[in-house]
């Protein structure tokens, strides 16, 4: 390559940690490649600018990816590092997710200065989260809790918690681990009670379709089981929605060549749950996700989605 390899990323501490991990792994994987030959370019996205209102109202998919994807398409960066969880299910034409790093811990953690565990929160306590999934799963177990919208990066949310804006919050264990902040977790939540978001805990790399040189450079970083399981989970999401306006959870594992997928759609207040699970050969991971997604869609019916959309609109107005 003529120029240094240019990695595009958002500027949050978590995004930067992930970009640095990709750089470190590239340097470790390729003899002759040194850190000064890999440049990290911070790109501000629309999502980063919207701090005053819930993202569910800001509209549009890919709020955290558009400017980074434009840089890929115009050739000013060679690869973009993302949290797979934040990636829209459909990418702009000409871009692909080429590489998935081995998945971190997929679970959510509960963080609170007021209680030793989620179930030990006092009656009527306030939860800060912007995630519809975490809201729904929390209310499912604790309908007495109050939920307030909590946005911003990991550090911002923790300072809101310390400032007393809520009694507790949730974060992805993966993010805390990558930031070396695992000690902040009060309790690691079970996969059963708090099924993760599709693709949680998996870092991915986006490149231009047909950029075989960059794809080959990244090949040593690719983790097959992560790619298969994230594919199944994202296919479930795509069959149902594709945005983040729906309380959806999904968790897949790969065992002996078969992908096992558990997934659910939950009403905003957690009282209605449509859950499915299935198994397929790993080559059919996407088809499995689609099949379960369509099964849930059929069970829930159009009225459920209309009510959900009205509920989300009311939540953010
Ligand atoms: N939506 C923000 C976001 N995107 C990815 C992660 C965590 C890291 C991951 O899932 O890989 C987070 C923060 C959180 O949910 O706590």
TrEMBL record:
The entry assigns this protein to a family as follows:
Belongs to the HMBS family.
In which organism is this protein found?
Answer: Gimibacter soli
Q: Which Gene3D superfamilies match?
A: Periplasmic binding protein-like II (3.40.190.10), Porphobilinogen deaminase, C-terminal domain (3.30.160.40)
Alphabetic keyword roster: Porphyrin biosynthesis, Transferase
Query: Which cofactors does the annotated protein need, by name?
Result: dipyrromethane
Positions carrying S-(dipyrrolylmethanemethyl)cysteine are 244
The protein's name is: Porphobilinogen deaminase
Molecular function (GO) terms listed?
A: hydroxymethylbilane synthase activity
Quaternary structure note:
Monomer.
Any Pfam family hit: Porphobil_deam
Pathway annotation: Porphyrin-containing compound metabolism; protoporphyrin-IX biosynthesis; coproporphyrinogen-III from 5-aminolevulinate: step 2/4
**Which reaction is catalysed here?**
4 porphobilinogen + H2O = hydroxymethylbilane + 4 NH4(+)
* One example of a Gene Ontology biological process annotation: protoporphyrinogen IX biosynthetic process
Q: What gene name is given for the protein in this entry?
A: hemC
What is the organism lineage in this UniProt record?
Bacteria, Pseudomonadati, Pseudomonadota, Alphaproteobacteria, Kordiimonadales
Provide the cofactor note recorded for this chain's UniProt entry: Binds 1 dipyrromethane group covalently.
InterPro entries (UniProt xref)? HemC, Porphobilin_deaminase_cofac_BS, Porphobilin_deaminase_N, Porphobilinogen_deaminase_C, Porphobilinogen_deaminase_C_sf
């Amino acid at each position: 390559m003529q120029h240094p390899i240019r990695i595009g990323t958002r500027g949050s501490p978590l995004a930067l940690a992930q970009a640095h991990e990709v750089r470190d792994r590239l340097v470790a994987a390729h003899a002759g490649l040194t850190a000064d030959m890999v440049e990290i370019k911070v790109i501000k996205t629309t999502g980063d600018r919207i701090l005053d209102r819930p993202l569910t109202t800001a509209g549009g998919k890919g709020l955290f990816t558009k400017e980074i994807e434009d840089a890929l398409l115009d050739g000013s960066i060679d690869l973009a590092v993302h949290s797979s969880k934040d990636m829209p299910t459909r990418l702009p034409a000409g871009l692909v997710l080429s590489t998935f790093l081995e998945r971190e811990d997929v679970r959510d953690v509960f963080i609170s200065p007021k209680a030793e565990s989620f179930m030990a929160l006092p009656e009527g306590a306030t939860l800060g989260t912007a995630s519809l999934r975490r809201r729904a799963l929390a209310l499912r177990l604790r309908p007495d809790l109050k939920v307030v919208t909590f946005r911003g990066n990991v550090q911002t949310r923790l300072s809101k918690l310390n400032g007393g804006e809520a009694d507790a919050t949730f974060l992805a264990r993966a993010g805390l681990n990558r930031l070396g902040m695992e000690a902040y977790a009060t309790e690691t939540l079970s996969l059963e009670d708090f099924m993760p978001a599709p693709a949680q805990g998996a870092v991915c790399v986006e490149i231009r379709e047909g950029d075989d040189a960059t794809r080959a450079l990244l090949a040593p970083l690719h983790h097959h089981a992560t790619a298969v399981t994230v594919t199944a989970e994202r296919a479930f999401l795509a069959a149902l929605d594709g945005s983040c306006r729906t309380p959806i959870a999904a968790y897949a594992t790969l065992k002996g060549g078969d992908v096992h997928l558990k997934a659910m759609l939950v009403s905003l207040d957690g009282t209605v749950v449509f859950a499915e699970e299935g198994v397929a050969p790993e080559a059919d991971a996407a088809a499995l996700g689609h099949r379960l997604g369509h099964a849930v869609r059929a069970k829930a019916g159009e009225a459920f989605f209309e009510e959900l959309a009205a509920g989300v609109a009311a939540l953010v107005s």
